[in-house]
Amino acid sequence: MTPKRKRLWLLLGSLAVLGVAAALVLNALNDNLVFFYSPSQVTEKHIAPERRFRLGGLVEAGTVQKNGQEVRFTVTDTHKTVQVVYRGLLPDLFREGQGVVAEGSLGADGVFVAREVLAKHDENYMPPEVAKAIKEAGQWREKK
Amino acid sequence: MIPELGHFALVLALAVALIQGTLPLIGAARGDGRLMELGRTAALTQAFLVILAFGALTQAFVTSDFSVANVVANSHSAKPLLYKISGVWGNHEGSMLLWALILALFGAAVAVFGVNLPDSLRSRVLAIQALIGVGFLAFILFTSNPFERVTPAPPDGNGLNPLLQDPGLAFHPPLLYLGYVGFSVTYAFAIAALLEGRVDAAWARWVRPWTLAAWCFLTLGIALGSWWAYYILGWGGFWFWDPVENASLMPWLAGTALLHSAIVVEKRDALKSWTVLLAILAFSLSLLGTFLVRSGVLTSVHAFAQDPARGLYILGFLLAVTGGGLALYAWRAPTLQPGGMFQPISREGALILNNLLLCTLAATVLLGTLYPLFLDLLTGNKVSVGPPFFNATFVPISLALFAALCVGPFLGWKRAELWPALAQLRIAFVISVIAALVAGYAADGRATLAAVAFGFGVWLIAGSVAELASRLRLGRAPWIETMRRLRSTPRASIGMTISHAALGFVVLGAVTTAAWHLESIRTMKPGETIAFAGYQVTLQRVDSVQGPNYVAERATLAVTRGGKPFTVLQPERRLFLVQRRQVAETVGDYDLSYVTTADYDYMLRALALHDFRVRYLPRVFVDFQVGGISTRGLGVTIRGNLECLRSRREHLNAPPIDPAFFLRFARRIFQLRA
Prior knowledge:
The complex is a heterodimer of chains A (about 140) and B (about 675). Chain A is an alpha+beta fold and about 140 residues long.
């Protein structure tokens, strides 16, 4: 086999691998992108039930109700609110009035069923999406 | 006084690095021996000065000098000594200083151990190392000075983030950095080779031990991090495809590819310019990892240090290192002499396939990690790319890699036949198919993909063993002959067998945790017993315990199995007094965590990894689970490669890096937990 043929084969092989990878990636991106919405966007957009997305905002003070393993609370961006129900252990840093990001989907009754409530390393840390959502609702106070 | 000395030492180190980064380069270009010799002296001086600076910061932390702003922000007088020391790098400024320290130490190591390198190559390597050092030292001095004072000094500090107060995490960053920074040496070697216009087998023999060392540290660092995530965060898994985790995975994948392609350069003098390119990419990806972690551009559970200005600096630095390296590569790589010829079906061909697949994996991770960033910039949409994306892309490509992995070692250099190689693997193939079928049957037909992946894990182990067995002529020659062959087998081959088999164990662990874990959340009162996965768990009592800087509630859970006592677990919930923060401490090898609910009940979350119906299987999987197999499997990998590293050193007849030292070190870390 001449060096030229060899190089051709190598090129074809690489292209085949990359092609398969690209197909996998595009396909996966199509199905698995999880969008982030604030409560205002949720009320505007009429998201289909069962479509998975992330909801971010502040846990509204006085709305956390625990009933056995089921927790209900309201997430707000100070403009609109969304009710959330979650079965499971909440992360250590979950507090009323603090920022929260929950991943799940809307139920038929409009209540957001969280499959995951995300934990954060730092209690002063505000997820950038949450900060942005609150800013957009026009209620942002710069801290510090 | 001492902090000022540290600051001053750092300024001097920057000056020395500037000299080291310029004069030896000029010397190498002109063939001036004295200017080239300067590189070694400067490297040692720079290392000494940075050690001094790091020592000064450590002193401030250990003595709780609260006139230093960094100590106030990250330490507290009541903290145990271990965490006072780990607090030095548990913050942005200190961790950058640690990075500079490791960089300077690696530079000094090249100066000391590189005695028999050609003068011009060594001085160029040292100069490139120094230029990287200039970037980091200037970054520390101008944007994140760890020695800044506060007046008046507060009486006490804010303490370290309680989640970081853990032996696993105390050593996670230094090991990770040793890996990241280790790739700076291979980068420097690559750039120096491009400047010299020569890449040959001797060059590869020098690059491989450094790559291997960096790779081992990176592996150990990642393993420690995933172990920490497994037991302290109580996330019940060990990999979450979080951007910051991906940031360490990308250089690991590129480094693994580099490790393999360097073999081809060394043995066959081929793939030279590709190997140089990989060396540039591996370090660029390490820097990208630092950039992602330090700038906070990506939403991540790890993003606790955010500063856009610093991010911008690192981004500029990243562009200089990557762009400069690639530009030099584009200019000089065509001048490299092409090397040995080979057929597509050969050891070289197999290693090219390995490199292709590993690089595709790295590209996939890069895309998934950066896609949200680009989409946000372009459209303003906030998205996250989570585990489903990576499962759909990473898993199929890795399976292809695993399938080919066992065949490669059976192929000869230059030209080989595929069928004889496959024929030698037929027993391994049958074993793994049986394993997949048993796993599928035991898991009740659920999770077919997991059963297939399980078969691949067994295939990796069986295939590696088959390779060793054929090398030793096991079963086909008398025992004495086999033993003789075992003794004369190069350690590098044994290292290969062990790491490939260890990858199989990692796959088994990943599959078992991902597909067959059983989770249950119950509310319990003291005295109550629940049944879970064949175990009876009784919450016996809950006590208050006093720790050095926390108070804790400790639950005592008695676990019985089939009426016989199995174990007693004592998970704790610690309230750190300085930060008023609660941290759940899960116990050892078992992932059990609990929280107190308002009405004095206790909520228990238990995880088991064996939802198998077949009676004789659970035992095996309990053993897999309790060790946190990801950690255990990777541990074996590292040991294998240290063996490999040692044989390299002996081969080069250079001063040995004693692997026993690293092993002792690793053992100590693991004992701290036990």
